[in-house]
Write a sequence for this structure.
């Protein structure tokens, strides 16, 4: 098995560091605080949540639920997902709880279907108007309240920003009220910076304003990642020159997914001696494999926007975007066009802003643009 995971969390063995973050989240949970985890995409939020739930689960004193709501577009979708995961923990219940569960199922009458291949049950609720949606959601939370009286439950809701796209009822207010009234249940909310923070938790006009502890996930430290890569390479009998691991971390900007991906490719190349030249070649191959996507990005942009994103990549982080030297150097018409371009690129999430500095979001794309 390739020790560099680029998909779902597997186990602590393949997980690099995040020790402080794990402790902090567990401490929040042990002290009944709800927590919101945010970062740019692919930094490792989902992985960290699974890592935390994995540790909590081991203790056997807490039931854990993970819910990814990325593909939900309405309250009714949410209810179906939420109800389904609640049903899935049922199997670990005592008989008494099973009885309670069946009562719960009766009261809101879901249809249960079983996946043909895996046999996993899933629930669907008949929610054809807003009032029914609200009532069903209230019922599910009441069930949760009931259920948690015997054992603490931790619920992680990933891609939480998605609830802002549900039409109709004020779902945020509904959720907030329900969550607030639960005794022995704690939540971890997670999502990307832009939407989650700006829209839900730090906007004084929104129901969730300041209702949870905020935690921002940054890059894994150089030292930790270096040790992790080093030990995995050793297990694979890969020998590399001293400058190779620092270069891996530099070229990927220590952005978790890109580090994992490059290392995964190194292992799969089956080369056992890695020096700078070999690394360069593997890196180059990755950029080439992705080139079709990059040309697709170009089709989405005006020529001014394309020039601008190329300039941002080449400068590897720019703050004075409308400054005259940046504009002159990269031949970008004028400050107001640049400002408009920046807004369009932010909107399309091709760039992001950290502090006052702009970066190209996709690290490999950024490296590819730099070479243009
Ligand atoms: N600490 C880590 N060690 C090793 N791999 C990780 C770590 N954190 C995340 N990953 C992997 O990196 C990739 C991106 O992380 P993910 O958790 O999906 O990011 P996010 O949820 O922030 O978008 C995933 O394949 C994940 O398994
Ligand atoms: Mg994620």
């Amino acid at each position: 098995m390739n020790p560099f995971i680029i998909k779902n969390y597997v186990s602590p063995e393949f997980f690099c560091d995040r020790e402080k973050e794990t402790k902090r989240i567990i401490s929040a949970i042990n002290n009944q605080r709800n927590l919101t985890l945010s970062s740019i995409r692919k930094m490792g939020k989902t992985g960290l949540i699974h890592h935390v739930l994995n540790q909590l689960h081991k203790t056997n004193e807490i039931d854990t639920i993970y819910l990814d709501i990325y593909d939900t577009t309405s309250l009714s979708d949410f209810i179906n997902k939420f109800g389904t995961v609640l049903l899935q923990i049922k199997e670990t219940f005592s008989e008494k709880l099973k009885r309670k569960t069946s009562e719960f199922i009766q009261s809101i009458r879901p249809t249960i279907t079983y996946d043909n291949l895996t046999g996993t049950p899933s629930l669907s609720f008949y929610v054809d108007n807003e009032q029914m949606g609200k009532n069903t959601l209230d019922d599910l939370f009441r069930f949760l309240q009931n259920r948690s009286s015997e054992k603490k439950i931790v619920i992680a809701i990933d891609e939480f920003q998605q609830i802002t796209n549900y039409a109709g009822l004020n779902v945020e207010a509904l959720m907030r009220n329900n969550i607030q009234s639960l005794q022995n249940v704690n939540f971890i909310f997670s999502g990307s910076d832009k939407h989650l923070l700006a829209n839900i938790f730090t906007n004084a006009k929104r129901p969730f304003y300041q209702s949870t502890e905020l935690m921002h996930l940054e890059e894994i430290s150089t030292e930790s990642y270096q040790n992790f890569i080093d030990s995995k390479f050793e297990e694979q009998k890969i020998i590399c020159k001293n400058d190779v691991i620092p270069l891996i971390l530099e070229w990927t900007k220590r952005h978790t997914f890109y580090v994992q991906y490059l290392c995964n490719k190194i292992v799969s190349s089956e080369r056992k001696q890695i020096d700078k030249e070999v690394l360069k070649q593997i890196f180059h191959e990755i950029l080439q494999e992705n080139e079709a996507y990059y040309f697709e990005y170009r089709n989405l942009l005006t020529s001014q926007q394309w020039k601008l994103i190329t300039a941002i990549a080449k400068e590897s982080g720019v703050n004075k975007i409308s400054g005259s030297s940046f504009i002159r150097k990269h031949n970008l018409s004028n400050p107001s066009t640049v400002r408009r371009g920046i807004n369009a690129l932010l909107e399309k999430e091709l760039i992001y802003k950290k502090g006052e500095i702009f970066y190209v979001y996709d690290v490999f794309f950024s490296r590819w643009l730099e070479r243009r």
